[in-house]
Amino acid sequence: MTTLVTGADIVAAIEQGAKERGVSVHWLARRLSSDPRKWLSQVAIAQRPTPLTIARVEALLADEPLPRAVANNFQLAREERAARHTVAASLPLPDDFQPLDREPCPRCAVRGDIGCSHRGAVRP
Ligand SMILES: [Zn+2]
Fold this sequence. Notes:
This protein has 124 residues and is an all-alpha fold. The termini are far apart. It has a domain of 55 residues. Helix 1 crosses helix 3. The protein is built from five helices and no strands. The structure holds zinc ion (ZN). Zinc ion binds next to loops.
């Protein structure tokens, strides 16, 4: 395989890979982007594609798992929330901790710690 330096090299390598596999360029590139047509047109004009892009294309052409693309803000926020939850879950509980019964009422579905006319409020 030729060394991938420019976007044109990448497009040429993907075209070659598609030809060898007997599939279309867009079919082969579908693992790189949810919009392979747009991705290819943008990478084609890149003078210096990022090392990550090059690594992803090399993995694609070697039929290996792709390195992960840079996470967007939504994914980062989700990971941050998950990490925060992990920290909170690992904190020790106070000695006098009493779990609250929050099971909803089977008749009206009001949360148990709020209370309803069927069960009354749970006193902590
Ligand atoms: Zn109720």
